[in-house]
Amino acid sequence: MFSTTARIRDGFCLDSRGDVWAGLDKTNAIWHYPLTGFDANGKPTWGTGISTPIPGTITPLTRIIYLPDSDTMILAQGIVGSTDWTSIGTRVEVYHGWLAGNTTVPNPVINITSANPKPITAAGNYLFVGYVHTVPNIDAFNLATGTLDTTLINSNPNTVYVGNDVDSMYGLRSYLRSTGEYMVTKNDYNGSSIVVYRWTPGSAVPAAPTGRSAAAGNGQVSLAWTASSGATSYNVKRATVSGGPYTTIATGTSYTDTGLASGTSYYYVVSAVNASGESANSAEAGATTVPAAPISVSTTAGNAQVSLN
Q1: CATH number, domain at 89?
Q2: Which of 229, 233, 225 is nearest to 282 (CA)?
Q3: Main-chain dihedrals φ then ψ at residue 23, nearest 5 degrees
């Protein structure tokens, strides 16, 4: 188990890499417990918790989702003044580059306007939001722009209960297939079935690139990343401070950044682009260029010694 005696009250997430993210009661912090391995019986083990203050703009925090492939943190605000910690309010903040250091500047902020939002899930470039006591539909919000891109309508609403509050806060799950299709499942709360939604955005913005790396050389950094489905090009962005701000320095499908100062650290993110727009930034990759070798060396002989210049 991950080691804590505090109650989990301000959200919980087990991400796709096995790390635990938890909002522990009365700590005003989000705790990250990295997966460190498995014991002889196959039981997972986690490292020491690392705390990050909860942004003041999202309190009371009630839901946490972390997407490690794009280093994206999604935080949902609870209902201000309510003791119902299972519900969410109208504000969801999206932080691109959370582990890279961006823990205070959300972009975008998603505003939910429909009544009674409760279950949320995220995959790829979308946040999916479900509702209780209203309609059994799912709203898909773009994580790059914050816009409501589509609503997934249940094909047979007469057979689906709107639902009560039991187990509904984690009643949605989502998955992005390699084909670009999203699959979203929702519990039929009062019944014994699961509703499955399948959706392929007709002209969707591509997901953020994954697998990014930066290899340093003498005055240059070679960048590589895994292609995003549907992307036609990529914007390469650079900063001299981890977490940005970043400046776009190139557009293409690969890039080597040359003419850099020797012995200097640089930080890069990459976004995917197609006709519909630009994705969120990838997770950050940093590299320090190799210090330059001396231009020339001269020697001066002396009595039992040699001086180098």
Answers
A1: 2.110.10
A2: 225
A3: -95, 100
pLDDT in tens, 215-267: 998 899 999 998 888 788 899 999 999 988 899 999 888 899 999 998 999 99
Cβ neighbours of residue 92 closer than 8 Å, sequence gap 6 or more = 74, 75, 76, 77, 109, 110, 111, 112, 120, 127, 141
Q: Which amino acid is at 100?
A: A
Q: Write out the residue range of the structural domain in which residue 258 sits.
A: 210-288
**157 within domain boundaries:** yes
Q: Is residue 215 within 8 Å of 257, Cβ to Cβ?
A: no
Number of structural domains in the chain: 2
Q: Which of the listed ranges 70-84, 179-193, 272-286 does the model predict with the highest average pLDDT?
A: 70-84
- In this structure, are residues 228 and 209 in contact, taking their beta carbons and an 8 Å threshold? yes
Asked if 80 and 91 count as a contact pair (C-beta separation under 8 A), the reply is: no
234 in a domain, yes or no? yes
pTM tops 0.85: no
Instruction: Name the H helices within 63-198.
Output: none
In a domain, 132, yes or no: yes
